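Summarise what follows for lecture notes:
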Amino acid sequence: HLFEHLMFMGTDKVPNIDLLLESGGGSNNASTREDVTNYYTVAPENMLETVLFIEADRFAHLPDAMTQEKLDKQRDVVLNERRESYENQPYGKIWLEMPRILYPESHPYGHPVIGSVEDIKAATLENVIDFFNTYYVPANATLVVGGDFDKANARALIEKYFGAIPKKPKPAPVA
């Protein structure tokens, strides 16, 4: 979940993703589950090129723009979200305990998606950069573009912005 939050921290080319999107009438958000993180943007058709540029830029360049300050800021946000959504909610703690009870310790689902306090606090800048470089690669991602726009133009823009992103191997599946 921490990595989901870090995707919104911007790059050298687009330091404030929300400001750029909102200035054109768009918005974005994300969600994380055991097997997938979804990032989505809703914007008017005239922002299609801007949205594709933003997504390709952060997909390709986020690790280069990651800093300790960004990590610390989002670490605090995620820890607060954990407190508000789980630790301080009636029956919230069950969602933190259930994965451990349902799955063996070595199973990838054996921990809560939001993470443990210990793991969130222990994440280093190197961990974050390695994670993005391993898992946020073209072979491990799916791009979906839907809406009222010219399909040929969208395809050309996708090729323009995503086509130059270097290929990296698909990460090995977790047993």
Summary: Residues 68-87 form the longest helix (20 residues).
